[in-house]
Amino acid sequence: MSRLVRISDDALARACGADAVAAAFEQAGATVERTSSYGMLWMEPLVDLDGEGYSFVQPEDVVAVLDGSSDKHIGAIADQPFLKRQTRLTFARAGKTRPLSLEDYAATRGWEGLQRARAIGPETVVQELTASGLRGRGGAGFPAGIKWDTVRKAAGTRKYIVCNADEGDSATFADRMMMEGDPFQLIEGMAIAAVAVGAQKGYIYVRSEYPDAIRKLRAAIPLAAPLIAPFEVEVRVGAGAYVCGEETSLLNSLEGKRGEVRAKPPLPALEGLFGCPTVVNNVLTLAAAAHILREGGAAEYAALGMGRSKGTMPIQIAGNVKRGGLYEAPFGLTLRELVHDIGGGTDSGRPVKAVQVGGPLGAYLHPDQFDIPFDYEAYAAADALIGHAGITVFDDSADMGAMARFAMEFCAAESCGKCTPCRLGSTRGVEVIDRIHAGGRALDALEQTPQMHNMPKQGRSREDEIALLTDLCETMRDASLCALGGFTPYPVMSALKHWPEDFG
Amino acid sequence: MTKAERIASICAAHAGREGPMLPILHDIQAEFGCVDEASEALVAAELNLTRAEVHGVVSFYHDFTPAADPRPVVQICRAEACKARGVEALIDRARSAAGDRVKLKTVYCLGLCSAGPAARVGDRLHAWLDEDGLAQVIEQA
Ligand SMILES: Cc1cc2nc3c(=O)[nH]c(=O)nc-3n(C[C@H](O)[C@H](O)[C@H](O)COP(=O)(O)O)c2cc1C
Ligand code: SF4
Ligand code: FES
Predict the structure, then answer these.
(1) Residue B126 and residue B82 in one domain
(2) Which of B22, B116, B118 sits opposite A239 (nearest CB)?
(3) Residues with Cβ within 8 Å of residue A59, at least 6 apart in sequence
């Protein structure tokens, strides 16, 4: 009898050669099933043979894996410490099901949430979502139930569900893994949102950097269409603009306009896509709604986590780390546990210097701060940000002055241009950081003319430039229209605060 | 088929959509390798917009380019997680491997952030790149 081999078709596994490995197994007479990824990404391509795992398999290992002599054997997959300690709710199917199999989906409690939502009606759906404590996973952490209730109560017969799949933050890939690995759960979550608010049409706005996710969704939607009708879902592809992850910029982009941020109010919940009431939620928020709406799902979710951060968070461990991957756990883990116990420290084996949490707009945290628990409020209190829960580990070779400069450079490259503190401040920020490195600057020709007698008589010192940067960051933080300009100061100022020696 | 006819048929294919601009521009970029001034004018006429409006949209997004470039493109991620894994040290060698033959494009994140440095050629992704690995990707592009 032919042996059954399971290999992920996740984009990262494919980048590591999973397709060639799958082909080699088929050639050796095995039956290959392509599944989602377990999220133990440092092991990909990970081969699952009767529950036993083989890591980093290449085509030349296939014979040894099949005859049991391979030294890439890691033991039973279910016993891997990285997996065992997780609480997988949103990623319960990861590694176990075939992404485009309706059969696998239904066999793992798929569509239960949607059926129940239809039975209990909009008001109860929103009540349960609120009771679960689910907060938006896209970054801002806004309570999902309140957003849905606002759209539910909004006047208007035409309403939309928009899934934000722009996932532009460095160190984040959970949305990608959800779309590639469990697309039906996302579609089910959107259909539940549609039931709750009375929407007819949904859009998934996916960044163009994710070709695999786009392909999977486009294959999944027609399969799911009869099950979610009359609600309809369509995929739209972004065009390489980070700022289009901001919800109002995203709506403009969907409408076919420049992705400029809109001033709020009006809230998208009341005047969103084409001026109609619109739910805009992150991929993970919508996917979580699917299991929360199952019988008992809301109570299960609300029982986990800490403080006002309820449930689980799919944390993405990335950068210079030994065991990088997807780690879903209740809120409350410390950074130390995440970086050292779970992530295994740096991949280079050198000491950890800094960790950035929350993508390009998140603060750099110093090892002295590693006791901070994973909790929206605890991070906010430390001038930091959970964001989309990506964490990037840096070893002691990192130049934090260069990272601060990059934060400003990134903001300048991606600014939508609508407001001055961000559009101009980011470029000025790069220049000021360069001058801090240069130790200040001398008076220029104009400043030395007699007419400029009110000027200071000396040029600027390094301290003057640091004061200028601090001032600029405060202005950007307080006067920017959206979080791109408003949060870029956090990585900059945290780097300056903890590693001043890296600024020349 | 002339370019005008081809663009008219792309616009027609998306006519039933709400907000068809981006899908149309993506198709034009894919087919002609750019969205040039002539295409902007044709799209404007089809969608009953001004050329300025269409140009505003085209110029906003990194994915649309004003002129076609016949060279193969290699996208290299230079965002934080790939920097933490050393992508900056690979750039000089990548530039010399590319020479004038290959166009190198910086992107910010390909979603492979635990396995960087990462690169993309067409729809193929590459992870765990070192100096030789990236140079090889570029040479084979
Ligand atoms: C510059 C910027 C980029 C953003 N990028 C994303 C993104 O890629 N994905 C996302 O879900 N939210 C992103 N957000 C947050 C969205 O504006 C919005 O809060 C979110 O989509 C709401 O969904 P949620 O409540 O489910 O989190 C971004 C915000 C800003 C300011
Ligand atoms: S902060 Fe930047 S990205 Fe946000 S609205 Fe202002 S210019 Fe646009
Ligand atoms: S940061 Fe390079 S792939 Fe995400």
Answers:
(1) yes
(2) B22
(3) A17, A20, A21, A23, A24
